[in-house]
Design goal:
This protein is mainly alpha-helical and 95 residues long. Helix content is 42%, strand content 8%. The chain is built from 5 helices and 2 strands. It has a two-stranded parallel sheet. The protein is globular and about 35 Å long.
Length: 95
Amino acid sequence: MRSPTAERVFTAWPGVETDSAGLAPDAETPLAAGQVEWAGLIFVMEKSHKAKLTRRFARQLKGKRVICLDIPDDYDFMDSHLVRLLELKAGRFLR
């Protein structure tokens, strides 16, 4: 629930457009090449996600900045601690 939480949190930030998707085969919203092409900045939650992203979308990632937030999958949707972590770790790149 990290990515949907991040999407919800940062949608409210002025000047920020967000989207979220997953890299797992059973993701509710699987990441598509068009989303990668659209993004100006891409956040992943774990190093393994960055590796998967790079393997699957190498062409679309040319010139893109990918930032790993190192946030474990230990939170429920909109968990207050998760929200604070996202604002702290990702927020500095969005100002």
